[in-house]
Design brief:
The complex is a heterodimer of chains A (172) and B (291). With 172 residues, chain A is mostly helical. Chain A has nine helices and no strands. In chain A, 45% of the residues lie in helices and 0% in strands. The longest helix of chain B has 18 residues. Chain B starts with a strand and ends with a helix. The chains are: A mainly alpha (172), B alpha/beta (291).
Amino acid sequence: MTENWGQLKSFEGKRFEALDAEFTKEVSKLIGGQDLTTCYSCAKCSAGCPVSDKVNIQVHELMRMLLFGLKEVLDTDMVWLCTTCYQCQQRCPQGIEITDIIFGLKNMAFRKRITPPGYVASRKALYDNGKLYEPTEWERDDLGLSPVPPLDVAETRKVLDKTGLMKIEEGK
Amino acid sequence: MTQTYEVFLGCAIPARFNNYEASMRAVAKELDIELLDFEGASCCGTVVLKSIDEPSWLAVSGRNIALAEKRGHNIVTPCNGCFGSLKDCAHVLHDNEAVRKTTNKTLSALGLQFTGKATIRHFVEVLYDMKNEIKGKIVRSLDGLSIAFHPGCHLLRPSKVAGFDDPELPRKVDELLELAGAKSIPWGLKLRCCGSPLLIASESIASRVLKEKMISVKAAGANCVVTNCPACHTQFDIQAIGMKDDEGSSLELPALFVTQVLGAAMGIDADALGLRLNRVPLDPIASFLGL
């Protein structure tokens, strides 16, 4: 299956049509985005990142794209290959909440259907069951563990209907 | 004095690592920590939901916190993922009034409100506070066991949210392991992510991250890896099975939960610690564990 995410594989020969200041502003308003524009591109984020040598576009490049207002950032593999380890955010000399910004970018990408399919399946599981996985009963019986306290799925669905989780894609 | 918490198990422990829950409960019993059932718990919210839609994450995570608050209890969890998600949610809702209002409007449909009065702790934090009590319970020294302790990311970072240990030089859980007589050895990639959250996006990249970790563990000369998180443990005790380095040498290493190590040193029976459910064979360290 062809992946629909991570399609921007290199800056080589790439021409960007516009620098969109509104996009930079939009990202600054994300949870954790408040200090985005203080980035001076030292690349300490990429130095500690566990996937720097495994991605096409590294996290300091992603940050530069955000400052340049390049929406194509949503097509970089760095967005979905961020492990959420928070090392970049922990070490950023400017205190930029980089990992949290990347969470916000994932939200934006998901709305454009730019996402690994596992996330679409997990969304359904979370909505249908209120959980990602079900207990393994035979193990619990063997160990003498009590049943996991029950969840009324109607409760989590009520919450997720209010937030509109199942209809967040654009145009829906 | 008995400490009382509602215990938030999350999804991964009851599904894959019931040995972690069993050993946590066995150790808690020794230390007189009271663990109440968390009635009505859903998924913690998790980095998965935070990645898809932050308002939904805050509402789901916030609902769990609000349930414990309504019952007047504090929360303890043995999972780094749940710890990170619940703490992060509380942090955002505490700091951001507009987001808190929106989330509470959603939660009002269930008659719930996030107020921020419940304390959210990782089980190892509670253990660290009871260092002296633990010391008095050690009956079998694990002298000779070299542990590569993997703290995992969300126990430590971002430290502003986690608030547990030094993010660059963590020592607290290592101190606990050394109370058991084991040695917590330094290793190069100790603070590096295990790669577990990438299993959903790209199993091959998750494996590359893990392989680097295992090479570092082996080079340091550890007998075993110890974790305090079911997501990390999925990497070390499931995904590492059959993994080899470029020369074809096995990279498997016994993987234990911190509560299994402490439990063994407290003389708790191997079956009660669920040691027979660990996947990577424990033969090389069986003598330390009472197996």
